[in-house]
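Q: what sequence does this backbone want?
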C-alpha cells in the first residue's frame, strides 16, 4: 500500500465537500497510515497536507468473501493441462 497514488484530477471540490476513495487492497487494521494530499489548481497554486491515522481492530470491517469463478474453461488465469 505504501506509495499508492490516487488521482482525482477530474474532480473539483468546493469548501466543505469531500471526496471518498476506496483503496485496493483494503486497509488492514492495527496499522498506522499516512495520508498525504497534494493539491494544485488551474492557476498553478499548490498545497500539501498530511495526516496520520490508525485503523483499530474494533473499527475494521470484516473482509468480503472471495467471489467464486465458475469453472467454464474460459478463465485465462487458470492453467489448462488438457492436451
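A:
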Amino acid at each position: 500500500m505504501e506509495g499508492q497514488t490516487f488521482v482525482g484530477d477530474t474532480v473539483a471540490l468546493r469548501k466543505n465537500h469531500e471526496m471518498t476513495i476506496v483503496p485496493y487492497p483494503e486497509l488492514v487494521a492495527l496499522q498506522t497510515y499516512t495520508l498525504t494530499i497534494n493539491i494544485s489548481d488551474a492557476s498553478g497554486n499548490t498545497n500539501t497536507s498530511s495526516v496520520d491515522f490508525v485503523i483499530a481492530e474494533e473499527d475494521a470491517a470484516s473482509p468480503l468473501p472471495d467471489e467464486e469463478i465458475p469453472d467454464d474453461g474460459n478463465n485465462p488465469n487458470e492453467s489448462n493441462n488438457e492436451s
